[in-house]
Amino acid sequence: MATRIVVVGMGYVGIPAAALLADVDGYDVTGLQRKSKRSGWKIDVLNSGKSPFEGVEPGLDELIAKVVKKGTFRVTDDIEVLKDADIILIDVQTPTDAQNMPQYVSLREVSANIGKRLKKGALVIVESTVAPGTTQNVVQKILEKESGLKGGIDFDVAFSYERVMPGKLLEYIVNMPRVVGGITPEGTKRAVEVYSKIVKEEIFTTDTLSAELSKTIENAYRDVNIGFANEMALVCESLGVNIFEIIKLINARHDRHMHIPGAGVGGHCLPKDPWLLRYGLYEYGTWKVEPEFISLARRINNHMPVHMSDLVENALWSKGVSIQDAIVTILGIAYLENADDTRNTPAATLAAALMSKGAKVRLHDPYVKSWDFGPQEVEADIMKAVEGADCLALVTKHSEYFTLDLDAIKKAMQTPIIVDGRNVFDQDTVMEMGFEYRCVGKRGIQRTD
């Protein structure tokens, strides 16, 4: 008899994980997705054998079509499928609020739904990123309360985090090392057996708390490194030096790897995981340790889209255009190149900052069809998006932006200005063409009044 797996949450983690598991002999996989206006449409799309993602995802469309046709993968909104599940993966979002506190509404609801239907001997694996201690102190306790069963005796619980990235969803699951931490050695072993069917790299085992810390510290480490690069970009701007030349010189030493600055940090992980780590240090109304580096990095990275708006305002001023009278076209709405993921996109902060200064904002993205951050429509036609614009502000380095017809774009614009948030354009080339040019880390604020 096939092992019945339910994957809760059909997003950037749940879909590729479910598809890969459904391709394993002896596994039968059901995706569980809430039928809401925002995401319920995914059920029909996936059941038709297609991927719901607009971005480039090598191999995913083919894999979904294969396992749907094979009959080992389907998606439903019926929570009663949990009753027969041998293995349950939790892949719901765990956002933070305006005060940087975790919001576990979905996680708690899903845990309760599972607990009410949990059968003896089942294995529950939390893949959603959580604050250290959450798997045992939140998920396991809810499962025990709702089921009347005992974790580690009647059922197993493990935490194993994802390392996926839009554009490389399958690759990063299959070809990245995996970390698994169960509440018991037996639970850890069972989870390893599941992942060994789809992961080609080494699978490391540890306890649940260490696995949770591994994920949050890993992303905090990256966020801090990006924050340092962004701050040094501001330093170089102030001194009239090109940060990208500096990075090249530093990284010429083989054991150095300074990160690249940019228009801001987005996605579901980096803007929130450092705060989840911090939250795990909160107990009885006080902090065990106050992690200052990660808080500072968050402030710096959050400021970069605002800095982009300052560069836009300065470039407009240099051409005699008031920002209150300007049309600014933002190039790239997704937080990551060649993807359609807009979660925590810096483009939203930039748009808000520009509009607060009186600018009219347009949006262009080759992959994103719509967004939830403002009233603007997302224009797919680049020439319509730039027609009559006073400035182009590039946020996302989609491959299409490297081959733009800049001659045609310049003729279509009212004022030829480019503010480059990702070092996509060659400064000498665009300036020779007559564009006023600013770039994060290359050219500082010139305005003196």
Task: Describe, in short, the structure shown.
Helices cover 39% and strands 15% of the residues. The protein is α/β, with parallel strands linked by helices and 449 residues long.
Ordered list of secondary-structure elements with their pairings:
Blueprint: E1 3-8, H1 14-22, E2 27-32, H2 41-47, H3 60-70, E3 73-76, E4 87-90, H4 105-117, E5 123-126, H5 134-147, E6 156-159, H6 169-174, E7 178-182, H7 185-195, E8 203-207, H8 208-239, H9 243-251, H10 273-279, E9 282-283, E10 286-287, H11 292-318, E11 327-331, H12 346-356, E12 360-364, E13 378-379, H13 382-386, E14 391-394, H14 406-412, E15 417-420, H15 427-432, E16 436-439
Task: Please tell me how large the radius of gyration is.
Answer: 24 Å
CATH H-level superfamily of the largest domain? NAD(P)-binding Rossmann-like Domain
Overall shape: it is: globular
CATH fold naming of the largest domain: Rossmann fold
Let me know the largest β-sheet. 8 strands, mixed
Total beta strands: 16
What are the segments in which pLDDT stays under 50 over at least 5 consecutive residues? none
- Please, how many helices? 15
Give the C-level CATH assignment of the largest domain. Alpha Beta
**Domain count:** 2
Strand order of the largest sheet: 3-2-1-4-5-6-7-8
Distance between the termini: 76 Å
How much of the polypeptide forms β-strand, as a percent range? 5-15%
- Judged by helices, strands and strand pairing, the structural class is alpha/beta
Mean pLDDT: 95
